[in-house]
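Progress against Task 2.4 (sequence-to-structure conversion) is shown through the following example record, which the project officer requested during the mid-term review.
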Amino acid sequence: MINYFSYNYENNLEEHPFGIQSEIGFCPWAPDHKLLKVGLKAIDFKSDEIPMRNLTFLIDISGSMDSPRKLPLVKKTMKLLAQGLNNHDRVSIVVYAGSVGIALRPTRGDRKEQIYDAIEELNAGGGTNGSGALKMAYELASENYKKNAVNRIVLATDGDFNIGESSDQAMEELITEEKERGIFLTALGF
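Structure tokens generated for the chain above:
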């Protein structure tokens, strides 16, 4: 379970990018078990210290994402993240189901209404052509690539690619090659 609460952990992170704090206790509903709470605290950045962000969302809108804990949760999360973007940032959205499409071409982060509208238009249905979408996402990320920026593709999906090329080795090679160029991939499972 991941909580989005502020626990006011200490901010003494000078030599490491994040700190870990843990706490163990008794489990009231299962006396033979213990509960472990693990807290992560990342370095706090001031807004003027955050590098430009070039974010390409790669969103699975296949039929299996049509569940309250899947696509609606992805949309809510994307809107929350968009709140923190500014005019230096760029955001794009690539969607895939039976086919691949661009829901939002690279857009400045301060154009919130345009970003929110594109997010609201996302609807689930169809198969899962993820490999074609991955290639398109890298193309969009490359369009706005900046050397000292955060260049990242954020994949939100609930499963495997079942349409198009789905060779794990071919996709792994593509991801590794792009990582060497400075475009990273984060995969989020819903």
